[in-house]
Amino acid sequence: MNFIVRESTPKDMPQVLGLIKELATFEKEPDAVEVTEELLKEAGFNSDPMFTCFVAEVDSEIVGMALVYFRFSTWKGRSLHLEDLIVKDKMRGSGIGKELYTKVIQYAYNKKVKRIEWAVLNWNNRAIKFYERSGATVLKDWYIAQMDEAGIKIYLENLE
Amino acid sequence: MNFIVRESTPKDMPQVLGLIKELATFEKEPDAVEVTEELLKEAGFNSDPMFTCFVAEVDSEIVGMALVYFRFSTWKGRSLHLEDLIVKDKMRGSGIGKELYTKVIQYAYNKKVKRIEWAVLNWNNRAIKFYERSGATVLKDWYIAQMDEAGIKIYLENLE
């Protein structure tokens, strides 16, 4: 199959949002996506962008994406976070996921970060095996904690 | 006890690094800290800082810190990541940790982020209970994957 992997432009964001919603459905939370095309265009392409997004394209259709941004590890220094790597269901097994993954690793190498980090669902054995075979370490002794907007508000309201 | 919580300055970084090393020892990885005072000063206080750090001070001694930066959730939008919240061992139970935690939540509220996120070791029951009581959700179905500098290099060298 002929596909290209390239950095995204604002015009890609409607299709990128489609992929984000497809992943949310796969992860069993179809209603969790609150971002909009406008927000993606604003956040990713202003003068101080909040992320970099790579897309895989086949005949002008966006069939995959990888979205990254920088983080800071107090142990290691600057790191790259891979927030999402998504390939359209019908395109799985075509090598597109591997190519996007490689693009992210090349980007991390060029930016001289100390490590790349991402999260993977603990029941997604296929992904875990892929990551481990590629040289990544999958840490099993951490939980992820989150406080959402409502929680933030309630916490502050209940302070003495 | 009299303490103040304030945003850090470059001058605080030597003591902040001391706290980072103390936490690494608690987490059973005393040799994992590669960052230096110079790196913290550069990364945190240049024109495009990679983090914001709050410190707790008692009689000119830094006895606690919380370090945060922004992330981007493809579901929710801008979020705040709490990378570390550290209180000196001798100061535990003094309310300093709670005050730093509150400072982070206030900062998140002021910055209008969609959520705050952090990681907690799955054997640190005291911390997990504290976070849950405060209104956070602790997700137990994710693993954290990491590829370090050596892994990045090996992956790219082994590409066809």
What is the compact description of this entry?
Chain A has 160 residues and is α+β, with helices and mostly antiparallel strands. Chain A has helices at 13-26, 37-45, 96-110, 125-133, 149-157; strands spanning 4-7, 52-58, 61-73, 77-87, 115-121, 137-139, 142-148.
Structural class of chain A: alpha+beta
Outline type of chain A = globular
Mind telling me the CATH superfamily name of chain A? Gcn5-related N-acetyltransferase (GNAT)
Seen as an oligomer or otherwise, the chain set is homodimer
Summed over residues and divided by their number, the pLDDT of chain A gives a mean of: 95
Count of individual domains of chain A: 1
Strands side by side in the biggest sheet of chain A:
1-2-3-4-5
Put simply, the count of helices of chain A is 5
Second-tier CATH architecture of chain A: 3-Layer(aba) Sandwich
User: Could you spell the SSE succession of chain A in H and E letters?
Assistant: EHHEEEHEHEEH
> Rg of chain A, please?
17 Å
Helical amount of chain A: 25-40%
Strand content of chain A: 25-35%
Explain what you see.
- The structure is a homodimer of 160-residue chains.
- The first copy, chain A, has a five-stranded mixed beta sheet, sandwiched between helices.
- Chain A has helices at 13-26, 37-45, 96-110, 125-133, 149-157, and strands at residues 4-7, 52-58, 61-73, 77-87, 115-121, 137-139, 142-148.
- Chain A has 160 residues and is α+β, with helices and mostly antiparallel strands.
- Chain A is built from five helices and seven strands, in the order E-H-H-E-E-E-H-E-H-E-E-H.
- In chain A, a hairpin with a 2-residue loop joins strand 2 (52-58) and strand 3.
- The model of chain A has no long low-confidence stretch (mean pLDDT 95).
- Chains A and B meet through strand 3, strand 4, helix 3, strand 5 and strand 6 of A and helix 1, strand 3, strand 4, helix 3 and strand 5 of B.
